[in-house]
Design goal:
Largest sheet of chain A: none
CATH architecture of the largest domain in chain A: Orthogonal Bundle
Helix content of chain A: over 70%
Oligomer: homodimer
CATH superfamily of the largest domain in chain A: Tetracycline Repressor, domain 2
GO molecular function (chains A, B): DNA binding
Number of strands of chain A: 0
DNA-binding region (chains A, B): 24-43
Number of helices of chain A: 13
Domain HTH tetR-type (chains A, B): 1-61
Protein name (chains A, B): ScbR family autoregulator-binding transcription factor
Order of helices and strands of chain A: HHHHHHHHHHHHH
Keywords (chains A, B): DNA-binding, Transcription, Transcription regulation
Amino acid sequence: MQTRKALLRAAAEAFDEYGYAGASINMILKRAGLTTGALYFHFDSKEDLAHAVMNAQPELIVPQLQSQGLQRLVDITLLWSHMLQVDPLLRAAVRLTGEQASMGTRDATPYQSWAKVMAECLRDAQNANELQAGVDPDELGEFVTEACTGMQMFSAVASGRDDLSDRAIRMWRLLLPGVAVPAIVARTEVSHERLKTLIG
Amino acid sequence: MQTRKALLRAAAEAFDEYGYAGASINMILKRAGLTTGALYFHFDSKEDLAHAVMNAQPELIVPQLQSQGLQRLVDITLLWSHMLQVDPLLRAAVRLTGEQASMGTRDATPYQSWAKVMAECLRDAQNANELQAGVDPDELGEFVTEACTGMQMFSAVASGRDDLSDRAIRMWRLLLPGVAVPAIVARTEVSHERLKTLIG
């Protein structure tokens, strides 16, 4: 597992810096300090490695969180907005996911796995009577995934992602009143202070 | 102007099909049936041409619409979701905007011009008392731009953009109740039927 992790990290750093086409297998092996044999034991190809990087996203964020329901979903987006600024693996995953046209692949799994994680929080929220009637957890989970995808792209070119947490906070200010019951809108913590408690 | 338009269209078709790196100046000139001289009269470089394609977006959609206020903003997103499936210029603009990392550029103008057009609709909506108190037109305009950006990426890999209009309709179902006053939520038309009337 350590070798696999080292390969993923090295590949992510190379993809983050040079993109899919610009990153070579040799560059990745050099960074990881590993041989071709080690690579092909764990991954079939550069493309296979890219898909593994793309699909590593939720595990980087979700296990760190204690909260439940709607607050958990808010916390996922806040922590994600911070991690994207500091973690090359998450950044490479997001870059590759968005640049699939130039890789010649079409893999919806990275989006779908985020949407699924978010829908699980929202089903808990629904069971705890946090959501307004008629709000579908699966639909809202997909929509929040879409909005986060777009906000990091806008933020990347507008500010090098410096304002990404501001954008995540703004999303909830606009979205919560239409999807959560009033008591939950009032109680849910959506702020830079909340993010600070999550980073710890 | 006709030559400039022909160059933009030819460049868009090439960028849409091959991406920025894959599309060559020669390929673009061949498609347009024009000479190098004609190109450099209108554009400084392939990069200049790419920025012109990226920034052509709102003019492809907005002048076609008659509605006002919040309905106009909804109509922009509905017509955009359709045009992205059929218009190579819009499709190339969106692809290039999202792939700026591989072009080595950082141009927030395509996002900002969409956000500005949307904020104008929302200021009209605010003046007509369509918005809930505290909803900021500029903030909501940026957020809808972000959400549309992300939904077309998710839709591209999930369905080749076949479900993009469904996703635009879903966004408004989730977002409207939190930002518009109840009478406007009830009156605003957000449906495939509405989109059909816009296509004409």
